[in-house]
Amino acid sequence: MRTAAERRAALRRAKARLDTLHLYRRPVRIGHVRVVVAPWAFRWVPPLRRFDGYATHVVILMRRPDLDDDLLTHELCHVWQMQHHPIRMPLSYVLTGYARNRYEAEARRAVDLTR
Q: b/e per residue, 8-34, with b = 16+ CB within 10 A?
């Protein structure tokens, strides 16, 4: 996923995987979503240090350019979740933490079901 075209193709593959699931009313929209390979962010931002990927509403940060499609699918699932629950989903990490978070479990399950 070194070039923008490769990252876009990987994003389309992840979307195709998630499109086979019916977790939400509408399929995930990727028109404004960008994949950014930013190893510096994972070094310099302490909360990100333990992750290999991180999703916001419109940006998926990746630690390394050579990560597999499973991680991108997992992070795109988080984007999909935020498209349907833009406040509740991010807030859930504050309220329940990471380990017991239902959205984390759902993203892991989405990867497993589409592998």
A: eebbeebbebbeebebeeeebebeebe
